[in-house]
Specification:
about 130 residues, 2 domains, molybdate ion transmembrane transporter activity, cell membrane, transmembrane helix
Length: about 130
């Protein structure tokens, strides 16, 4: 249970690095604090919420209304990725990074247990986080 809690905390830290960088750069350049609030509110509403809602509605339209099948949203996404090669490369990099991270998360424990001996999982996990 403690491992799950610590894993959740580590994942939160992993996905908050962009926000930390943004705040540090904002303060370093001496911009007004109000701009940071505006940037975050726009990023959350326009960047996350609105895009997710529109993507869900578009996917539903492609699958149900146009009867293009369950793979149609992925085909539509490939059209958007073809517009800009950098987006496709960024998606590939993120997929490969997260895939390797999740593979590591699931396999690090069995890989370290020799002959079913008991090892200090919490200590090893904390050491991984420190590195």
């Amino acid at each position: 249970m403690v491992g799950r809690v610590l894993g959740g905390i580590a994942t939160s830290l992993l996905f908050s690095s962009f926000e930390s960088w943004l705040v540090a750069e904002h303060n370093k350049r001496g911009f007004e604090q109000q701009w940071l609030s505006i940037t975050f509110s726009k990023a959350i509403f326009l960047g996350n919420d609105l895009v997710a809602i529109v993507a869900g509605l578009l996917g539903n339209l492609l699958v149900d209304s146009l009867s293009l099948g369950p793979v149609a949203p992925f085909d539509a996404a490939s059209c958007f990725l073809a517009i800009d090669e950098k987006m496709a490369l960024l998606g590939a990099i993120q997929s490969l990074f997260e895939g390797s991270m999740y593979t590591f998360v699931f396999l690090w424990t069995p890989a370290l247990i020799p002959n079913d001996k008991d090892i200090p999982h919490g200590f090893i996990f904390a050491t991984f986080i420190l590195d």
